[in-house]
Write a structure and sequence with these properties.
This protein has 147 residues and is mostly beta strands. It is 10% helix and 33% strand. The chain folds into two domains: 37 residues, no CATH class; 85 residues, no CATH class. The longest helix has 14 residues. The chain is elongated and about 80 Å long.
């Protein structure tokens, strides 16, 4: 999750109302207690959301070879482009690629951004063999959404 740095704003002028092109001062409402939408409260909320997302681990042992650039059907669903998926191959973290050639990574997420998918695609420069294994870490549950 990309965090947004929240901070309280600064008052730059007093409140007023304009009637027939003349400004009249007004007394703003008064509050007691903490105002929930203050910068520090929004930062706390943002941190709590990130810390409350559960991670799930899935393991997959291949029962057939996967060719160069081949697809893998995952034993779970995830949200494409939401940075919720980590893929490990034989214990090594794989990098998400922005192209099929794999010039900047090892696999691609399949589907439109923000859609739900259960597939990834190896980049075209490597393959995997029967008996090799993957570990997947996914943040959140997407089982009730369609792939």
């Amino acid at each position: 999750m990309n965090k947004i740095p929240f901070e309280n704003g600064q008052k730059t002028q007093e409140a007023f109302v304009t009637i027939e092109e003349k400004n009249y001062p007004v007394t703003p409402a008064k509050y007691s207690g903490k105002v929930p939408l203050s910068g520090p409260n929004l930062m706390k909320l943002q941190n709590n959301i990130e810390n409350s997302v559960e991670e799930y681990i899935y393991n997959l042992v291949l029962n057939s070879n996967i060719d160069l650039g081949g697809e893998i059907t995952l034993p779970f669903k995830y949200k494409v482009g939401a940075n919720v998926l980590q893929v490990y191959y034989m214990g090594q973290l794989l990098l998400l690629s922005s192209d099929d050639a794999g010039t900047d990574g090892h696999y691609r997420e399949l589907g439109e951004v923000d859609s739900i998918s259960n597939k990834i695609k190896l980049t075209s420069d490597w393959s995997a063999e029967t008996g090799e294994y993957f570990k997947f870490v996914v943040k959140g549950v997407y089982e009730n959404e369609t792939a």
